[in-house]
């Protein structure tokens, strides 16, 4: 078991220290959440549609199953190739 999970850094701290550490952890969480939001905004709406997401998944998760119909499974890479053939 991860000791940080079993004993968070502020578990043994005095109440005043615990509040400061908890506030710092919350501030870090908000910053990270804001960074994720900014990253999604940078992607823009054009990449948040199927035409933008499918090639991205094909690149990073190409061998993962994307579509299962009956007994046939297409990976993201195979689906992307098929969709590109249909589109062009």
List keywords for this structure.
single chain; 88 residues; mainly alpha; two-stranded antiparallel ribbon; 4 helices; 64% helix; elongated
Given as residue ranges, the uncertain stretches (5+ residues, pLDDT < 50) are none
Count of distinct strands: 2
Give the biggest sheet.
2 strands, antiparallel
The proportion of residues forming helix, as a percent range, comes to: 55-70%
Task: Tell me the strand percentage band.
Answer: 5-15%
Q: Helix and strand succession?
A: HHHEEH
Structure, described:
The chain is mainly alpha-helical and 88 residues long. The mean pLDDT is 75. The chain contains four helices and two strands, in the order αααββα. The chain is elongated. A hairpin with a 2-residue loop joins strand 1 (65-69) and strand 2 (72-75). It is 64% helix and 10% strand. The chain has a two-stranded antiparallel ribbon. The chain has helices spanning 3-6, 15-43, 50-60, 76-87, and strands at residues 65-69, 72-75.
């Amino acid at each position: 078991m991860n000791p940080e999970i079993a004993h968070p850094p502020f578990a043994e701290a005095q109440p005043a220290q615990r509040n400061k550490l908890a506030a710092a952890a919350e501030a870090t969480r908000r910053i990270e959440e804001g960074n994720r939001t900014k990253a999604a905004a940078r992607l823009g709406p054009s990449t948040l549609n199927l035409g933008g997401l499918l090639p991205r998944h094909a690149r990073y998760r190409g061998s993962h199953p994307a579509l299962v119909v009956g007994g046939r499974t297409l990976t993201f890479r195979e689906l992307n190739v098929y969709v590109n053939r249909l589109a062009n």
